[in-house]
Amino acid sequence: VPSSMITITTRPTTKRSNNNHTDKDRHRRVVHAYHDHATDAPSVIPHITRGGVKTPFPVRLHNMLSGVEAQGLTHIVSWQPHGRSFLVHKSQEFTDHIMPQYFNQGKFASFQRQLNLYGFKRITRGPDTGSYYSELFLKGRPFLAQDIQRTKVKGNGARAASNPEAEPNFYAMPTLDDASPSPLPPSAPPSVVVSNLIHKEQ
Prior knowledge:
By secondary structure, the chain is mainly alpha-helical. Helix content is 30%, strand content 5%. The strands form 2 sheets. A two-stranded antiparallel sheet has the order 1-2. The relative contact order is 0.19.
């Protein structure tokens, strides 16, 4: 067959779609599974900070909210009435005047990133819109904040979609003044309790 009569048909090459992760991220939503720790008692076992951090971010955040309340600056940032979430009312004033006193971050976006890294979740509807919460971040219970762990960043860092239908309704729960934590039993000092725990484990 003369070469001039040979026809070669080629099929167009198609790239394999790599949108699997994108599709998953598009349907991923924030999970709100709230457990009330308001009546938890303080732990008698001392907390050990990791990575050389003297005061973890959640503890500094709790101290900050107590500090601004004492200074009369709750118009800038404050606990919500139920004491289960907090809200930054004026982000610019918060960044300029409050953040330098308590945090190393200089930008509000960096502050929000720290909240995300420690698992804080944002309320997107109702009277608490824009506030952040964590199960272990409760007004009047700074000892709980010591147990909030920094989460490991996974995947491509895509933000999950909001899930307002599953957000907790803190106004349907007792206020923290009405749900104070149970006191520790006075029978044994903390050192004895820790010693007994060690002996039980051995």
